Amino acid sequence: MKPECVEIRPSRPGEAARISEIAMLSKAMHGYSPDFMERCRAELTYSEHDLSSDGMSFLVADFDRVVIGFGALMLGEKPECELEALFIHPDYVRNGLGEKLFTALSRIAIQRAYTIMYIQSDPGAAAFYERVGASYVRQSPSGSIPGRTLPVYRMELEHITPLPT
Question: Which end of the chain has fewer surrounding CB within 10 Å, N or C?
């Protein structure tokens, strides 16, 4: 599968269960135990309400009418937004799809006049965010595992080419 064969589009009603499934599968690919994954389930579960929230923007990667990845942008107080999620089904990783989704989400942020994106990353995904140009800023507490910290990155969105208007 080539990334150019994948459609990046807004999520649709009825896709929350598939999006949640991909989040769990993608997170598990970093080698976490079943107990750890169960403790992350609530944070990695998205509802239909989440997909239609005004404060969030969800995009999915659609390959042959099957959702194989997704990303979500939390739209906060300008100029800062946050990458809420970016997950690719394990069968489709390492082929440029994550970067394609990340760029599409960044372009949405730019179109809405955001200039800075913060990213709380899984340690296993940190190298990806560094590769796309984000800079490490600090550690932040995990929302799922007490005592665990996660790396936080900052992305200056001026490096992303906006879509033509």
Answer: C
* Residue 148 CB partners (closer than 8 Å, separation 6+): 141, 142
pLDDT tens, residue by residue, 91-112: 999 889 999 999 999 999 999 9
102: Cβ–Cβ under 8 A, 6 or more apart, which residues? 71, 83, 86, 132
- The CATH label, of 3.30.300.30, 3.40.630.30, 4.10.910.10, 3.30.1360.120, for the domain at 3-159 is 3.40.630.30
What does pTM read for this prediction?
A: 0.91
Q: Which helix (H) or strand (E) element contains residue 151?
A: strand 149-156
Alpha carbon 83 to chain centroid distance? 6
Q: Please, what is the Cα angle at 98 between 93 and 104, to 5 degrees? A: 155
Calculated CA dihedral for residues 116, 122, 125, 131, nearest 10 degrees: 30
